[in-house]
Amino acid sequence: MLRRLHPSRPLLHCGWRRLCLLKQSLFTMKVQSPEFQSLFTEGLKDLTELFVKENHELRIAGGAVRDLLSGVKPQDVDFATTATPAQMKGLFQAAGVRMINNKGEKHGTITARVLMVLYLTTLMVMKI
C-alpha cells in the first residue's frame, strides 16, 4: 500500500503498523516554534559547540522530534551525531563533561550529563 504525507513524497506500507520511507521521500523541515527555542539552554549550547568545533553533526532525535512536531515541549531530548562513541568520549573528557551509565556504548550510545541527562547516539544505517 502506498501512502503520502506530502503530495510528492510517497510512503510505502511495510506490514503491521510500520511505514518505511522510500529514499525519495526524505526531506528536511525547519522548526522555529517556541517549544523548539526553549530547548536551547546554556548546557545544550555548550554541547552543540563541542560537536561543531570538531565538525560533527548533532541532530535532535527520538520522541523529542515527535513532541516538537506536535507543538509540545519535550520532557527529554535524545541526539544523533556523526561522532563515534570513542570520539564522543574524547570530546566529553576534554571538556570535563560527566558521562554516566556506559552500558549503551556497545549500541553506539553515550549518556552525558550537561545540566540534564542527554543520550547521544552515533548515526547508523539499518537495512530492513
UniProtKB/TrEMBL annotation:
GO terms for cellular component: mitochondrion. Residues 58-113 form the Poly A polymerase head domain. Keywords: Magnesium, Metal-binding, Nucleotidyltransferase, RNA-binding, Transferase, tRNA processing. InterPro entries: Bact_CCA-adding_enz_type3_sf, NT_sf, PolA_pol_head_dom. Its cofactor is Mg(2+). The keyword Membrane does not apply. GO terms for molecular function: metal ion binding; nucleotidyltransferase activity; tRNA binding. The keyword Repeat does not apply. GO terms for biological process: mitochondrial tRNA 3'-end processing; tRNA 3'-terminal CCA addition. Pfam families: PolyA_pol. Belongs to the tRNA nucleotidyltransferase/poly(A) polymerase family. This is tRNA nucleotidyl transferase 1.
